[in-house]
Amino acid sequence: VPAFCHDEKLFTGGHCRSCLVEVDGRLVAACSTPARDNTDIQTETPRLLAYRRDLGELMRTEARPGGWVGEVLERWGVDGTRYTGVRSPRETPTDTSHPYLRLDTDACILCRRCVRACEEVQGQFVYAVAGRGASSHLTWGGIPFAETDCVSCGACADTCPTGAITDIDREKAAGRTELKVVQTTCGYCGVGCQLEVHADPTTNQIVQIEGAESPVNHGHLCVKGRYAHAFVAHPERLTTPLIRKDGVLVPASWGEALERIGQEFQSRPGKVGGLSSSRATNEENYLFQKWFRGALGTNNVDCCARVCHAPTAAGMRASFGTGAATNSYADLERADLILVSGSNATDAHPVIGARIKQAALMGTFLIVIDPRRTELATLADLHLQLKPGTNVPLLNSLACALVEEGLVDTEFVAARTEGWDEFEPFIRTQTPEALEAVTGVPAQRVREAARHYGSVEKPMMVHGLGMTEHYQGSEGVMLLCNLALLAGAVGREGVGINPLRGQNNVQGAADMGCQPDMLPGYAPVSDPAVRERFATLWGRAVPESVGLTIPQMLEAARQGELTALYIFGEDIAQTDPDSGRTLAALDSLEFLVVQELFLSETAQRATVVLPAACVFEKNGTFTNAERRVQRVRKVVDAPGEAQTDGAIFLALMEATGWPQEARTPAAVMDEIARAIPAFTGISYDRLQGDGLQWPVPTPEHPGTPLLHAERFARGQGKLTRVEYLPSPSLQGGSLTLITGRVLEHYNAGTMTRRTPNVTLETADYLEMHPKDAAARNIPDGSTVTITSATGTARATARITRRVAPGTVFLSFHFPETATNAVIGDVCDRVTGCPEYKVAAVEVSLVAGNLGT
Ligand code: SF4
């Protein structure tokens, strides 16, 4: 039974009548009629066949449907129409303004699947059906499609059954049976969406990406995961090793490059360091830290978790005992309140952002804590628009309101927490009224938020880097934990604390021990028993002293105490704070190895550059933000002589006298399962389906979607008293800069800038409130400089009320902007994570450039 307007992902439409069947002689729409026992259902009676032909002819009056609907009409014998002269003119018959999507309303049968997908999957409301009767037609506002609010998720093209809405990749893939289809994990953000990648084996090229059905993304994707794959075959990919000779990087053989690296790193005991990559697989990260520790004898190994969610790990470990998400994404739909803090999820984690939007549209109470009016903030029931850098006083005042208003779950606090006696008198001093002037959030609004959070059955928290990349980042996370403990909102489905991890495998890189004080599985280096256990497993001693963090390594480089650095899959020249000092550190090194896809800003400073395979060119696993370990599968071959990171590390281990027995990603995972108790039950055989959420303590264990159900990993949950300390970054400057990502680009933009995404967002923009712009005579679209105590950035001004007066926002995806030149060296007091989210700045118009 055809059902043109039906899609499993959408609510039942019942618009098109193509699925009419006879039930006990009555005609009913099958899609919206519940089946009952003992019912006579006829699907192919002469009456139905005549009806369908008539319906098909009516459709042919209005449209020339192709795709699956066209095939069905052909089957019904509809090759023309008796109904002529009633066709209504189309507002915009075709549209090719968008870099990915193509629209041809002549093929539209008004099944409204695109309208519903846009609303019900993405929550974007780009499409509508306008007019009545014969003049009904699909509309997107009568403007070029590229100028609509479309976020390019592709859900409309995915569901359109006629080809009226399609995309350029779908067109390329149409009818090509020779394409191979591989399921793998998205290599952009930490959501971990599952992809179905269609590739042409003869040209070794990716043709199309679709969303795979999985508990993570339910077939949905964002503009990066679905469309931003052109970088894979980009002509600027590195294809051969390069070695600097006479100041110039020249092609070299793998043998020469590996020998040189081995010699240089082994000849500098205690003076080498390595920055592991959250872009790489678990297996590759595991091998990297193992090589540094076992062959090079140093714990100087760190990863980008240091500069994003290290405060989450530290804060949650201090409060709960485990520094990872307490729940699964599925709990977003179980919660009856979602508190989002410091996360612009619809831009930075779009598929989860869409799930939060859907929850809010379906009635889940949404509270957003953010200095910026993000998309989620516009949908929120309560937006607590705090001054940048005041998370700590705001969260303290929320906790105070919970206590003062009698909303504490006293049974939970008594049974499962510690520290109440010391905490209570302190928190009662942190009243919303007393802190209103500090945070800028009206006390009544804070109390209202506390009342909602404290009184619903299932309040859930989601947070991002706006919580962690602060002077008191780790302490801020502890205060989120305080709120959950006070409300008894942890250890159950639909409640808890869930960090949205930045990069695709930042969770995994930290899990694998790419941290100077932690071996795989967060085993402390300082514990002799731990070192002994790994020494037995590896057959090599584990160095005793805790290594250097990324900022410490860079400082040691500037001081000449660290002379060789190995960086892979990270462009720190662009992404690390205080760029001037980062560049000085890189330039101080005697030997720098960079392993990359492209000659990045960092790679341009290297002594040796190694060409690496990208996410579509290798096998392995990533761990997403809900602790789900998922397979990464090879789709195409790497270009030229590029190698996987794992293969390079195995070769280096051999070159430095430590050949490994485990030589495939699956075998390395088996070793990881022996090294990390939470991974004991994980093997490639068990990762065929939806992956496994750690801990998986035995080979039969189904994984752990929910943490801390019976007890916290540290025993009792800890209520922590945190005093507010204003950040040194707030001093000086008349404006406060916050930085973050935009939807179309990803971090340093190394990949997304080499795709048509660059036509969707062509540059970094400085968002500025109209009042601040007027005070400085800065017109919209003009070029401005942003100057702090450490440096100057340059961008185009975008005048908007998304930011409050006194606050400006800048993304960091284009090297020419130099966003991180203005970020200072202030770090989280506990983990050393840089304070990217606050900088005191001045903004001035670049003379003679008034824009539009
Ligand atoms: Fe990839 Fe993240 Fe987009 Fe999912 S939300 S498709 S993981 S970038």
SSE blueprint:
Layout: E1 20-23, E2 26-29, E3 41-42, H1 46-62, H2 67-75, E4 94-95, E5 101-104, H3 113-122, E6 128-130, E7 137-139, H4 155-159, E8 165-167, H5 168-173, E9 180-185, E10 194-200, E11 205-211, H6 223-227, E12 242-245, E13 248-251, H7 254-266, E14 272-275, H8 282-295, E15 301-302, H9 310-320, H10 331-334, E16 337-341, H11 345-348, H12 350-361, E17 365-369, H13 375-379, E18 382-384, H14 391-404, H15 410-416, E19 417-418, H16 420-427, H17 432-439, H18 443-455, E20 459-463, H19 465-468, H20 473-486, E21 496-499, H21 506-511, E22 518-519, E23 523-524, H22 528-538, H23 550-558, E24 564-568, H24 572-575, H25 579-588, E25 591-596, E26 608-611, E27 620-623, E28 628-632, H26 645-655, H27 665-675, E29 692-693, E30 717-718, E31 735-739, H28 757-760, E32 765-768, H29 770-775, E33 783-787, E34 792-799, E35 807-810, E36 839-845
Parallel strand pairs: 14-15, 14-24, 16-17, 16-20, 17-18, 19-30, 20-21, 24-25, 25-26, 31-35, 32-34
Antiparallel strand pairs: 1-2, 1-3, 4-5, 5-8, 6-7, 9-10, 10-11, 12-13, 12-26, 22-23, 27-28, 28-29, 31-36, 32-35, 33-34, 33-36
Helix pairs in contact: 3-12, 7-26, 8-26, 8-27, 9-20, 14-17, 14-18, 14-20, 17-18, 23-25
This protein binds iron/sulfur cluster (SF4).
